[in-house]
From TrEMBL:
Residues in Imelysin-like domain copies: 47-343
UniProt keyword Nuclease present: no
GO cellular component, one term: cell envelope
Keywords: Signal
Gene3D superfamilies xrefs: M75 peptidase, HXXE motif
CDD domains, sorted: Imelysin-like_IPPA
Record localization: Cell envelope
Protein name as annotated: Peptidase M75, Imelysin
InterPro entries given in the database record: Imelysin-like, Imelysin-like_IPPA, Imelysin_sf
Cleaved signal peptide residues: 1-24
Amino acid sequence: MALPRSFLKIFVSRSFVIMLSVTAPVMANASQWDGPLNGISDQVIANGYQSYARSAALLQESSAALCARPSESALLNTREVFKNNVLDWQKVQWLNFGPVTYFMRYYAFEYWPDKKGITQRQLRSMSQADPATLDSEDFWQKASIAVRGLTAIESLLYHPDFSPLTSIQDCHLLTNVTEHHALSAMDVNRQWQTGHAEDWVFAADEADLDTKKLALKAFLLQWIEHIGMTKDAKLETPLGYHGNENLKLAEFYRSHLSLKAIQTNLQSYRAIYHAGPPSLFDVAQQLQPELAIQLEKQLTLSLKMALSLPETLLHPDQAHVDQQTSRRDQVQPLVTSLSRSQAYLSQLVTALGFQIGFNSRDGD
């Protein structure tokens, strides 16, 4: 079901503007793009959000059970359910487009990096507030994105300032955050199950433009940008490429999911490339075989490298055990491989006729 034009403008303005010119050095016919678009929409995004919504609902249920009968085993179970939900999020994190942009949900699902500790400060204040305030639907409609999702839930489950086992207030806060989080995930999932990618494309003159191809272009641009974000924010920044090493800047470091999150991202990249049929890889093999194989090999190599890294590499509470090789030295081959993956993908997308623009994630 198509959304109103005003609604589409909101989505686009809060993520990025899709460049409207589409030229092809080697032109594929329109039907060739249907396979990659539908495959990515259905197999990667819709299925991904379905899993994410389900694990978010399980997290809500587990949190409620923990607070009804607090115990160490219940806390451990809730933490495990939380980890599953985080990794489900990592499968769709690459896409800041469509319904997840409404109400700033993309940033509410994960408020990171939080270099100023905003989530912690706001949660402390909320834990001391009147519990009835948190039960108000109006409160959560106006609540900061810093306390509406996984970043806040991780703090409540892992930070020493909070104790769901012993504090009624902290448990009440946990159940409210997980409930709001689950409802948000469910709503985004519902829109992907009933809508189509082209519903969230705004074109100035839709009669003259292929909205399906523009939607695929949006997917590809988001994928390119996310590879850069994974390299820069998830690896280089916490490991001190741009300053001092600070592993507390790593993603989900409290729950020790930093490396697993990256591994899941890299698995999602290959899923995007091979979703179809025909997949983007299939079409690229026909039109740009050398670039297609080059990207395939680099994506596979990046994943292999990430899976071979020590599990504790990005854990700030554990000493680095390899005295011969620094953390940066260990991760450098992966950083290089990600740079190449991003460059090869950009080259392939351009060769297939999609003009790519600025990086919407960092404002370039």
